[in-house]
Design brief:
Elements lengths: L8 H4 L2 H21 L9 H20 L10
Length: 74
Amino acid sequence: MSKIIAKTPQNENSLVSSIVIFALMMALFLGCLYSLNFLTLGNPWPMAACLVLFTASFLIPQQFLGRSDSAGEN
């Protein structure tokens, strides 16, 4: 039988890297909200920036950094 080693949150990443990732993603999210201050009916670009920043703030940690819910994976 092969030995299955489960990854727990304690051995996935360090506290410092978690804080840095959180700070960067929160900055992206707050930048998304700040861009809505400039939204008018004549200027759609702040909404485009909002959508890009919002998507990046969730897509980067979940897909690229591997922090998505991966229950059942080895």
